[in-house]
Amino acid sequence: MSFDAMWGQARSTAAARQQSSMQLNHVDPGITTGGASDYTVTSPDLKAVGNDAQELYHHLETDAFHAGATTGTASDQLIDDGFKTGLALSSAWSTWCSQAEALLSACAHIHNHLEDTVWTHKNHEETLVTNLSVEAIDKHFK
User: Fold this and answer.
1) Which spans in 26-84 are helix H?
2) What angle do CA 79, 97, 76 make, to 5 degrees?
3) Which region holds residue 35: left if phi is over 0, alpha if psi is between -120 and 50, else beta?
4) Would you call 65 exposed, middle or buried from its count of C-beta atoms within 10 A (0-12, 13-18, 19+)?
5) pTM for this structure?
């Protein structure tokens, strides 16, 4: 295949992609989007996920670190007795704590984000409805 043929094919492929993306982003003027919102954030599924994240957070907060004192004592004793496994145990405990704290942070973030999403969306919807109502009133006075 010659360079000109390959270049022509590449250009036609790029044009087709651009045209299809324009079509995907285009809304037919004949379609009306007025009326009630079709996007609902107050779904029981979102609340359930947020509640599960909060529940996991509380269980993990109490259960993840209960072995800390005994693990530290065992690690120190093994090190004092000259066993290299004492350092390994200490390192494993440190890694566990770091990962448990990361999981706690993620659970809190998920819960807070999902809880905030419902309220934020509700406020945005109220703002949009108010703005659209004002625009509808304004067009009658022009």
Assistant:
1) 44-63, 68-80
2) 15
3) left
4) middle
5) 0.54
Read off the pLDDT of each residue in 21-37 and give the average, rounded to a whole number: 47
Convert the pLDDT of each residue in 82-138 to its tens digit.
999 999 999 999 999 999 999 999 999 999 888 887 677 777 777 877 777 766 676
CA–CA dist 81, 79 (Å, integer): 5
Structure tokens at 49: 């996920």
Q: Work out the angle at residue 56's Cα, subtended by the Cα atoms of residues 51 and 59, and round it to the nearest 5 degrees.
A: 125
3-state helix, strand, coil in the chain (%, to 5): 80, 0, 20
